[in-house]
Amino acid sequence: MLEFMRERAYRPMTADELALHFGCGAEDGGELARLLHELEARGDIYRTRAGRYGVPERMNMARGVLQITSKGFGFVTPDGGGAEVFVHAGDLNGAMHGDRVMVRLLKRGFADGRPEGQVVRVLERKHDRLVGTFRKFDGYGFVIPDERRLGIDDVFVPQASNGGAEDGHKVVVRIVDYPDRRRTARGEVVEILGRRDDPGVDVLAVVRKYRLPEAFSEEAMAEAEAVPDAVSPEELVGRRDLRDKPIVTIDGEDAKDLDDAVCVERLPEGGYRLYVSIADVSYYVREDSALDREAYERGCSVYLADRVIPMLPPRLSNGICSLNPAVDRLTLTCEMAFDADGRRVGYELYPSVIRSRRRATYTDVRKILVDRDAETTARYAELADEFRLMEELALKLRERRMRRGAIDFDIAEAKIVVDEQGRTVDVVQRERTIAERIIEEFMLAANETVAEHIFWMKIPFIYRVHEEPDPEKMRLFAQFVANFGYTVRGKAGSVHPRALQAILEQIRGTKEENLISTVLLRSMKLARYEAESLGHFGLAAEFYTHFTSPIRRYPDLIVHRIVREVLRFGSLPPERLERWAERLPDIAAQSSERERVAVDAEREVEKMKKAEFMKDKIGEEFDGIISGVTSFGMFVELSNTVEGLVRLSSLADDYYHYHETHHALIGERTGRVFRIGDEVRVRVVRVDAEEYTVDFELVDTRPRRGRSGRENEGRKKSAGSAGGRGRGSGLARKGHGRAKNEREERTDRDGRGGSGRVGRRSGGKSRRRK
């Protein structure tokens, strides 16, 4: 049918005409009708008002996912690629953000040829439930959605369907009738979360909005309860005993799910032996079990400000699978040998049993290695020398990684401190010291080693991939940094990650660091999971996977499962090869999607909690740095990463004009200039708790010039030393939060890049998702 409709000579036909063409008899009429209905529902064909059928691409149509902006208009990215189609707010015709739609391309368009369209059909609805605030009136009510990009202002709720909700309640509403050209959406309240100011309701609303699962199924919980809470002697058969090694875990103070432990030994010839032992979660979570199915659906643990939504029940994640000190734990170990220059010269993978000597924290390791704190060093007397050896190896591994061209973003991250009721009591900037870098480098090394090992065995596997950036985006980025006097080295249409890392080195500590780092990040593609090895551009790595966080990420659990099979049998039998080849593409797609949901939920909670923290700061003054300049004002970032907007209308001393080329606001009369990186003093004047925005006003209209690149040469050098760091780049990105994931790869900011030790841990764990 589709081949026929795509023929050049085809003209839209009615169902009767199609039946005649295909020689359908009376008995085939029902089957033909079902086929046409199915193809139309999928958007493969379109039926005109006259009842004629054709394929969209030959009827001036396009289909894709609708993305609505906060301004009310939207864009549709056509399936299979092509230019985005602009959709005016008045042409949405009841379609909502995230819906799959069919759009008719209009004759009118933009002068530069960009297409404009009108939604003619919704093919698939993204939302059937919404979270919002209930407003009660006599005989009826409305729910105003928290998500302002939906394309609808409210959902009408009849009195009989309000579920007892009172005015101001935060609720979950199920959509009964979707909006169209003539009517608004209609729904019923299915859950009352509480009032907005009730403790925990704000985060609970985000949990419901993103449909994050909280309770585990009874079957999964029963399986978890059946798991023993200690390792038995019988379970050690076939495992290498590493319990005599000085293995330790290094994590944040509040981390409870400890899934990686490390140990370093000096080799006689001057090299190093590194043991990276990861919790053997796949031993306890068996394939196709209820726990496995639950972990697949969740995809990863989600770390919000005052709670964790784990991938596995706490009995596993904080118990038998967590590498707690002084107890036996089952692990998979990647043992790697490096020469004196940090070059890997050998490795071995094997099942093992460990007994962690200590549960070290990033803070304590930093005090030992950077602060030379005598009291802390004495507490870790038996391990202090090993920490120094870890530092030595980690710095050599990083140096080799930088030489090959890996990109190392150093963007400021926020740590939200909440009280027992979940209210924000402080927002501070996370530190990235040598302690974090040690674990970062060791996890990266293990991930690369495992990926390369399985790749050359030609066994189906799941990889973490980060493809080369789009040449056009790189061309635009090169033009952008040229405004600041920097040059991106490379050939036309191609750039090596080493050239981009060189830019990051040049801008470290300069006033434009925030802006350039963020623009570069946005110019790169998203990291994702794939069933084939496509390389990792940000790490300049040919092979890469996620092996190091099976407690918190489903792909890591799958990697462990495959590695254990390979270690047990030497390879995989044909039926297992076939099964994995069939399943892994779906697992990769599901895991990537769940990761994006987790990132979005974490970002939203972070923005919410920052706004909450600033609510009682109205009238207070702070020093900040201009992190972005726009035609409507300038964004100012405080030292704790909170960002606010100084609106152009609040600059009363002059008329200011936005100069896009110079990324500056320039006064018409005074000639005063506000640029990226300038230091300013601001006063908090407004906080919108619903939009999560903060407004500032300038206390002093005279900007203090930030450091220039030359002035920062010395700072650049010191920032690269052990334990040192530059200011970090925490540019405010309107509508974006900061990804809160493991720091093993610096390129996975906002989901870009990809790495190692992720799991977004609660509390003190730096949580960049690489």
Structure, explained:
Among the domains are: 2-123, Nucleic acid-binding proteins (OB fold (Dihydrolipoamide Acetyltransferase, E2P)), CATH 2.40.50; 129-196, Beta Barrel (OB fold (Dihydrolipoamide Acetyltransferase, E2P)). The protein has 18 helices and 33 strands. It is globular. Helix content is 28%, strand content 25%. A hairpin with a 5-residue loop joins strand 15 and strand 16 (272-279). It is of the alpha+beta class.
CATH top level of the domain at 2-123 is: Mainly Beta
How large, in whole angstroms, is the Cα Rg?
A: 28 Å
User: What is the overall pLDDT average?
Assistant: 87
Distance between the termini: 44 Å
CATH architecture of the domain at 2-123: Beta Barrel
Counting DSSP H or I runs of 4 or more residues, the number of helices is: 18
Predict the CATH topology of the domain at 2-123: OB fold (Dihydrolipoamide Acetyltransferase, E2P)
